[in-house]
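Q: what sequence does this backbone want?
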């Protein structure tokens, strides 16, 4: 059966993510991706301008969803709002360990691939809404901006820690992690 262009593109991304998980960005070649997807090298370049373009699409496909977390409407107290955001982020993202692994690998091997995604996440509508609601709760724009920036970077660090824990077979307690980070943010500023 012949695949449509979008289906073929998706199969290339699927082949690439599996190889990147196994061998890293540096250890994955277009030849290996083509072999895994059962296509020719040339067909990869019909869908992607370059290997970097393929990697950028891969990061966009798998990492962007990590930053899209819904806010609970009922929370107005800063600590409850922060706790629910952290908890939702962790629950949502632990359900997709492939994205976590790809993000961690990109951070170490190819941070250039995710710098735009990180900037996009930092300017997302969810984080703007969170900042605004925290500004109301804290009564200070500076404090709410600091809290959201600190929260975002802490969650990205947790992504790396989760990957390390998972590799070593260690548990990752979502509720305890969310409580500790909430106490740190609310009590730290």
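A:
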């Amino acid at each position: 059966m012949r695949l449509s262009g979008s289906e073929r593109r998706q199969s290339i991304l699927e082949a690439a993510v599996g190889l990147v998980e196994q061998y890293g960005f540096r250890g994955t070649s277009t030849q290996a991706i083509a072999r895994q997807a059962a296509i020719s090298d040339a067909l990869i370049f019909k869908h992607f301008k370059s290997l970097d373009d393929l990697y950028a699409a891969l990061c966009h496909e798998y990492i962007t969803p990590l930053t899209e977390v819904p806010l609970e409407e009922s929370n107005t107290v800063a600590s409850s709002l922060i706790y629910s955001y952290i908890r939702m982020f962790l629950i949502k993202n632990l359900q997709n360990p492939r994205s976590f692994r790809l993000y961690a690998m990109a951070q170490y091997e190819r941070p250039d691939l995710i710098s735009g995604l990180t900037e996009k996440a930092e300017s997302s509508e969810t984080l703007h809404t969170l900042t605004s609601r925290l500004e109301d709760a804290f009564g200070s724009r500076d404090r709410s901006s600091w809290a959201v920036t600190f929260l975002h970077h802490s969650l990205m660090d947790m992504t790396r820690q989760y990957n390390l824990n998972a590799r070593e077979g260690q548990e990752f307690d979502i509720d305890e992690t969310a409580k500790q980070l909430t106490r740190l943010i609310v009590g730290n500023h």
